[in-house]
Amino acid sequence: MDGGLSNVKKWVVLYPVYINSKKTIAEGRRISTSKACENPTCAEISDCCNYLKVPCVIEIDKAYPRDFMQRGRVRVLLKKEDGTLYNPAIPSRKQLMLHVAELVPKHHGRTKKQEPATSTAGPSKSGKGGKKKK
C-alpha cells in the first residue's frame, strides 16, 4: 500500500476512535455523533482511504493513548511532494474524517455482517422479574 512513498512518520494519523460514534469527545471522538460511525476498524478505514484514492498505511502495533486496549491506527498522506492534494475533495484531516465516517457504514464487510443479525430472534421472556413474595 505504501507505493514507495517516503517518510511515513510525517503522514496524518487517523485512529478509529476519532470517528467512533460510541465514544465521547473526552474519550477522543473528533467529529459530531451524527456524522460519526459505529465502531470502525483500521481495515475499514484503510479500504475507505483506498476508495478515496488517498495513500494509507495501517500500523497494527500502535494504540490510542486514551484507549490503549484498542490496537491499530491508519497513517494517511493528504498531499504530494509538490504540495498538491491527492484528492481535491479532502484538503484537511477533518474532511478526511468526515468522508471516511460516511463511507464506513457502506463498507462491504459491514453490510454482510448486519444481514444475519436482523433475522428473527427466538421467543422473548415475558413476565415480571425479581423476587417472588411468599
Verbal overview:
There is one protein chain. A hairpin with a 2-residue loop joins strand 2 and strand 3 (67-76). The protein is of the alpha+beta class and 134 residues long. It has helices at residues 42-51, 93-103, 108-117; strands spanning 12-14, 56-64, 67-76. Strands 1-3-2 form a 3-stranded antiparallel beta sheet, with helices on one face. The longest helix has 11 residues, at 93-103. It is elongated, with a radius of gyration of 19 Å. The chain has one domain (8-112): Signal recognition particle, SRP19-like subunit (Phenylalanyl-tRNA Synthetase, Chain B, domain 1). Helix content is 23%, strand content 16%.
CATH class: Alpha Beta
Number of domains: 1
> What general form does the structure show?
elongated
Query: Can you tell me the CATH topology?
Result: Phenylalanyl-tRNA Synthetase, Chain B, domain 1
**Helix percentage:** 10-25%
Q: Give the integer mean of the pLDDT values.
A: 84
Rg (C-alpha, Å):
19 Å
Strand order, largest beta sheet: 1-3-2
- The sequence of SSEs as H and E is EHEEHH
Keyphrases for this structure?
SRP19-like_sf; Phenylalanyl-tRNA Synthetase, Chain B, domain 1; 3-stranded antiparallel beta sheet; signal recognition particle; 134 residues
Secondary-structure map with pairings?
Elements: E1 12-14, H1 42-51, E2 56-64, E3 67-76, H2 93-103, H3 108-117
Antiparallel strand pairs: 1-3, 2-3
